[in-house]
């Protein structure tokens, strides 16, 4: 049976590992730098134990004997992770990078991974991992993308090879992110303005009339906690989006503005995490 291991065990990595294990996959171990963090080690070990994973003390230990290595770190650490793992990979191992990053960064990571004969396959995750879990739609690209699709699809993963050129899948994802991350930034800015007039309910009611097929209050409540939880990571991703657009010859005006708004929200350091858009707006107002 195909042996799978993970590098990085954040939200996405945890959900993918849990789903694969539930589908009968042989998921052996994970390595995450949190294991070296005295303040976070216990929580990390508890999480891996709950999922049913062995927590490796090093990348070398994690990838030994694995057929497929899934890298699920934060986007600005993907090249560093590849550099850390690459010396321990052997010819024939697959390295699936699911991080949101520009085509340039994917190519840089691929060069490191393939130096010893391992196969680099990039993945573009095309929707939010929750609620899809390990069945979230993914586009794959690389010389061995079709082969890896054939390995992972039988476990129920929603993977589809779109080409052999590294960067082609991530470019599609980056283009989509202009809208998806821009949408959330616009929504929060819209509601912030409305709340200063005590008119957020009026605005949401108006949006409901204009777009009756969408439940705008439900959407606002869904994104409120996620914006606070993920805004710093998403801001970094939007700079990758901007780089991608520049490679395509498009001035990234919207992408950079979205990055600024998400970074602004991250820097507010809102705690505790709001459960509704009303709680988020109150927290923002309290920050002055």
Summarize the structure.
The protein is of the alpha/beta class and 288 residues long.
The helix-and-strand class reads: alpha/beta
The biggest sheet, with number of strands, parallel, antiparallel or mixed sense and barrel status, is: 8 strands, mixed
What proportion of the residues is helical, as a percent range? 40-55%
Cα shape: globular
Order of helices and strands: EHEHEHEHEHEHEHEHHHHH
CATH level 3 topology of the largest domain: Rossmann fold
By DSSP, the count of extended strands is 8
CATH C-level class of the largest domain is Alpha Beta
Overall CATH architecture of the largest domain = 3-Layer(aba) Sandwich
Give the total of domains.
2
Radius of gyration: 20 Å
Tally the helices: 12
Outline the structure in words.
This protein is of the alpha/beta class and 288 residues long. It folds into two domains: 3-166, Rossmann fold; 173-286, N-(1-d-carboxylethyl)-l-norvaline Dehydrogenase, domain 2, CATH 1.10.1040. It has twelve helices and eight strands. The protein has helices at 11-22, 41-51, 59-63, 78-85, 103-113, 129-132, 145-152, 168-196, 200-210, 216-247, 253-267, 277-286; strands at residues 3-7, 26-31, 54-55, 68-71, 94-97, 119-125, 138-141, 159-163. An eight-stranded mixed β-sheet has the order 3-2-1-4-5-6-7-8, sandwiched between helices. α4 (78-85) links the parallel β4 and β5. The longest helix has 32 residues, at 216-247. It starts with a strand and ends with a helix. The model has no long low-confidence stretch (mean pLDDT 96).
């Amino acid at each position: 049976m195909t042996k799978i291991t993970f590098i990085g065990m954040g939200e996405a990595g945890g959900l993918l590992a849990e789903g694969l294990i539930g589908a009968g996959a042989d998921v052996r171990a994970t390595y995450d730098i949190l294991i070296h963090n005295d303040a976070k080690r216990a929580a990390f070990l508890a999480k891996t134990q709950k999922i049913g994973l062995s927590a490796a003390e090093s990348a070398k230990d994690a990838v030994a004997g694995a057929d497929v290595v899934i890298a699920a770190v934060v986007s600005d650490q993907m090249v560093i992770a590849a550099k850390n793992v690459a010396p321990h990979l052997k010819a024939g191992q697959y390295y699936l990078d699911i991080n949101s990053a520009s085509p340039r960064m994917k190519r840089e990571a691929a060069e490191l991974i393939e130096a010893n004969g391992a196969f680099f396959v990039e993945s573009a995750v095309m929707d939010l991992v929750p609620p899809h879990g390990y069945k979230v739609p993914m586009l794959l690209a690389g010389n061995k993308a079709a082969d890896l699709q054939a390995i992972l699809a039988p476990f129920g993963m929603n993977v589809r090879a779109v080409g052999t050129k590294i960067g082609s899948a991530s470019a599609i994802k980056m283009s989509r992110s202009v809208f998806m991350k821009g949408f959330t930034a616009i929504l929060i800015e819209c509601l912030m303005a409305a709340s200063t007039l005590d008119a957020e309910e009026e605005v949401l009611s108006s949006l409901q009339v204009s777009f009756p097929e969408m439940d705008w209050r439900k959407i606002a409540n869904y994104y409120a906690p996620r914006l606070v939880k993920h805004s710093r990571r998403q801001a970094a991703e939007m700079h990758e989006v901007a780089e991608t657009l520049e490679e395509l010859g498009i001035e990234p005006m919207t992408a950079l503005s979205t990055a600024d708004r998400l970074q602004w929200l991250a820097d507010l350091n809102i705690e505790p995490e709001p459960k509704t858009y009303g709680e988020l707006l109150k927290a923002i107002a309290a920050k002055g």
